[in-house]
Protein backbone atom coordinates (compact mmCIF):
# COMPACT_ATOMS: atom_id res chain seq x y z
CA UNK A 1 0.00 0.00 0.00
CA UNK A 2 2.84 2.40 0.85
CA UNK A 3 4.47 1.76 -2.55
CA UNK A 4 1.22 2.58 -4.32
CA UNK A 5 0.82 5.85 -2.39
CA UNK A 6 4.47 6.74 -3.03
CA UNK A 7 3.98 6.00 -6.74
CA UNK A 8 0.84 8.16 -6.91
CA UNK A 9 2.62 11.00 -5.12
CA UNK A 10 5.51 10.76 -7.59
CA UNK A 11 3.12 10.92 -10.57
CA UNK A 12 1.39 13.89 -8.90
CA UNK A 13 4.76 15.69 -8.55
CA UNK A 14 5.75 14.93 -12.15
CA UNK A 15 2.45 16.27 -13.45
CA UNK A 16 2.84 19.30 -11.19
CA UNK A 17 6.20 20.18 -12.76
CA UNK A 18 4.76 19.84 -16.29
CA UNK A 19 1.97 22.29 -15.49
CA UNK A 20 3.82 24.79 -13.27
CA UNK A 21 4.45 27.45 -15.92
CA UNK A 22 6.39 30.39 -17.27
CA UNK A 23 5.93 34.00 -16.15
CA UNK A 24 3.66 35.03 -19.06
CA UNK A 25 1.63 31.86 -18.63
CA UNK A 26 1.36 32.50 -14.90
CA UNK A 27 0.18 36.10 -15.46
CA UNK A 28 -2.88 34.90 -17.43
CA UNK A 29 -3.70 32.28 -14.83
CA UNK A 30 -3.03 34.77 -12.03
CA UNK A 31 -6.15 36.59 -13.22
CA UNK A 32 -8.28 33.50 -13.93
CA UNK A 33 -7.60 32.01 -10.50
CA UNK A 34 -9.57 34.75 -8.74
CA UNK A 35 -12.83 33.34 -10.15
CA UNK A 36 -12.52 30.61 -7.51
CA UNK A 37 -11.51 32.90 -4.67
CA UNK A 38 -13.69 33.64 -1.67
CA UNK A 39 -14.61 37.22 -2.66
CA UNK A 40 -15.68 36.35 -6.19
CA UNK A 41 -17.48 33.18 -5.08
CA UNK A 42 -19.54 34.99 -2.46
CA UNK A 43 -20.19 38.00 -4.70
CA UNK A 44 -21.25 35.66 -7.51
CA UNK A 45 -23.81 33.93 -5.30
CA UNK A 46 -25.15 37.29 -4.09
CA UNK A 47 -25.34 38.68 -7.63
CA UNK A 48 -27.07 35.52 -8.86
CA UNK A 49 -29.53 35.72 -5.96
CA UNK A 50 -30.39 39.29 -6.97
CA UNK A 51 -30.63 38.26 -10.61
CA UNK A 52 -33.01 35.43 -9.68
CA UNK A 53 -35.64 38.03 -8.71
CA UNK A 54 -35.64 39.16 -12.35
CA UNK A 55 -35.14 35.65 -13.79
CA UNK A 56 -36.97 33.26 -11.42
CA UNK A 57 -36.03 30.26 -13.59
CA UNK A 58 -32.47 30.40 -12.21
CA UNK A 59 -33.58 30.45 -8.55
CA UNK A 60 -33.34 26.65 -8.00
CA UNK A 61 -29.79 26.62 -9.40
CA UNK A 62 -28.82 29.63 -7.26
CA UNK A 63 -30.17 28.00 -4.09
CA UNK A 64 -28.41 24.75 -4.94
CA UNK A 65 -25.14 26.57 -5.71
CA UNK A 66 -25.34 28.39 -2.36
CA UNK A 67 -25.93 25.11 -0.50
CA UNK A 68 -23.20 23.24 -2.39
CA UNK A 69 -20.69 26.06 -1.82
CA UNK A 70 -21.53 26.24 1.90
CA UNK A 71 -21.50 22.50 2.59
CA UNK A 72 -18.47 21.72 0.43
CA UNK A 73 -16.40 24.44 2.09
CA UNK A 74 -17.26 23.17 5.54
CA UNK A 75 -16.13 19.68 4.47
CA UNK A 76 -13.07 21.08 2.66
CA UNK A 77 -11.84 22.88 5.78
CA UNK A 78 -12.29 19.69 7.83
CA UNK A 79 -10.29 17.69 5.25
CA UNK A 80 -7.52 20.33 5.07
CA UNK A 81 -7.13 20.24 8.85
CA UNK A 82 -7.12 16.44 8.87
CA UNK A 83 -4.79 15.76 5.91
CA UNK A 84 -2.40 18.71 6.46
CA UNK A 85 -0.71 18.43 3.06
CA UNK A 86 2.03 21.03 2.65
CA UNK A 87 1.75 23.22 -0.44
CA UNK A 88 4.12 22.33 -3.30
CA UNK A 89 5.95 25.68 -3.32
CA UNK A 90 6.94 24.99 0.29
CA UNK A 91 8.17 21.43 -0.25
CA UNK A 92 9.38 20.99 -3.83
CA UNK A 93 12.55 22.51 -5.30
CA UNK A 94 12.43 24.95 -8.23
CA UNK A 95 8.70 25.67 -8.07
CA UNK A 96 7.54 28.77 -9.89
CA UNK A 97 5.26 30.35 -7.28
CA UNK A 98 3.04 33.26 -8.18
CA UNK A 99 0.80 35.28 -5.89
CA UNK A 100 -0.15 35.25 -2.26
CA UNK A 101 1.74 32.81 0.01
CA UNK A 102 -0.97 30.75 1.71
CA UNK A 103 -0.64 29.59 5.30
CA UNK A 104 -3.23 26.81 5.20
CA UNK A 105 -2.83 23.34 3.74
CA UNK A 106 -3.25 22.40 0.10
CA UNK A 107 -5.54 19.35 0.05
CA UNK A 108 -8.16 19.82 -1.31
CA UNK A 109 -8.04 23.04 -3.30
CA UNK A 110 -10.50 25.63 -2.01
CA UNK A 111 -10.58 27.57 -5.28
CA UNK A 112 -11.37 24.42 -7.24
CA UNK A 113 -14.02 23.42 -4.73
CA UNK A 114 -15.59 26.89 -4.93
CA UNK A 115 -15.72 27.27 -8.70
CA UNK A 116 -17.11 23.78 -9.25
CA UNK A 117 -19.56 24.24 -6.35
CA UNK A 118 -21.05 27.25 -8.09
CA UNK A 119 -20.94 26.00 -11.67
CA UNK A 120 -22.06 22.36 -11.26
CA UNK A 121 -25.61 23.27 -10.13
CA UNK A 122 -25.95 25.57 -13.14
CA UNK A 123 -24.60 22.85 -15.45
CA UNK A 124 -27.16 20.43 -13.99
CA UNK A 125 -30.07 22.87 -14.35
CA UNK A 126 -28.97 24.34 -17.69
CA UNK A 127 -27.00 21.69 -19.64
CA UNK A 128 -26.28 24.07 -22.53
CA UNK A 129 -24.20 26.15 -20.10
CA UNK A 130 -21.69 23.28 -19.80
CA UNK A 131 -19.80 24.52 -22.87
CA UNK A 132 -18.96 27.75 -21.02
CA UNK A 133 -18.98 26.80 -17.33
CA UNK A 134 -16.96 23.58 -17.49
CA UNK A 135 -13.96 25.12 -19.32
CA UNK A 136 -13.98 28.09 -16.92
CA UNK A 137 -14.02 25.73 -13.94
CA UNK A 138 -11.18 23.64 -15.37
CA UNK A 139 -9.11 26.77 -16.06
CA UNK A 140 -9.50 27.93 -12.46
CA UNK A 141 -8.47 24.50 -11.17
CA UNK A 142 -5.56 24.34 -13.62
CA UNK A 143 -4.46 27.82 -12.56
CA UNK A 144 -3.86 26.62 -9.03
CA UNK A 145 -1.19 24.20 -10.27
CA UNK A 146 0.29 26.70 -12.73
CA UNK A 147 0.68 29.18 -9.88
CA UNK A 148 2.48 26.61 -7.73
CA UNK A 149 0.00 26.51 -4.84
CA UNK A 150 -1.57 23.07 -5.45
CA UNK A 151 -0.74 19.63 -6.73
CA UNK A 152 -2.96 18.24 -9.52
CA UNK A 153 -4.55 15.83 -7.03
CA UNK A 154 -5.53 18.80 -4.81
CA UNK A 155 -7.55 20.42 -7.58
CA UNK A 156 -9.10 17.13 -8.68
CA UNK A 157 -10.12 16.45 -5.08
CA UNK A 158 -11.71 19.91 -4.89
CA UNK A 159 -13.66 19.30 -8.09
CA UNK A 160 -14.84 15.89 -6.90
CA UNK A 161 -15.76 17.28 -3.49
CA UNK A 162 -17.96 19.87 -5.22
CA UNK A 163 -19.47 17.21 -7.49
CA UNK A 164 -20.19 14.87 -4.59
CA UNK A 165 -21.73 17.69 -2.59
CA UNK A 166 -23.86 18.76 -5.57
CA UNK A 167 -25.17 15.21 -5.96
CA UNK A 168 -25.85 15.02 -2.20
CA UNK A 169 -27.68 18.39 -2.17
CA UNK A 170 -29.72 17.53 -5.29
CA UNK A 171 -31.09 14.30 -3.77
CA UNK A 172 -32.18 16.00 -0.52
UniProtKB/TrEMBL annotation:
Residues 61-170 form the Phosphatidic acid phosphatase type 2/haloperoxidase domain. It is a multi-pass membrane protein. InterPro entries: PAP2/HPO, PAP2/HPO_sf. PANTHER family: DECAPRENYLPHOSPHORYL-5-PHOSPHORIBOSE PHOSPHATASE RV3807C-RELATED (PTHR14969:SF62), SPHINGOSINE-1-PHOSPHATE PHOSPHOHYDROLASE (PTHR14969). This is Phosphatase PAP2 family protein. The chain crosses the membrane at residues 28-55, 61-79, 122-143, 155-171. Pfam families: PAP2. Keywords: Cell membrane, Hydrolase, Membrane, Transmembrane, Transmembrane helix. It is found in: Cell membrane.
Amino acid sequence: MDRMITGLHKVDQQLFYKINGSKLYRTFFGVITHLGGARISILSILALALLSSVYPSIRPAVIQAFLVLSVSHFVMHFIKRSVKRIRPYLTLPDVMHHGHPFEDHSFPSGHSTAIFSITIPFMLHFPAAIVILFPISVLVAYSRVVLGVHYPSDVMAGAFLALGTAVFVSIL
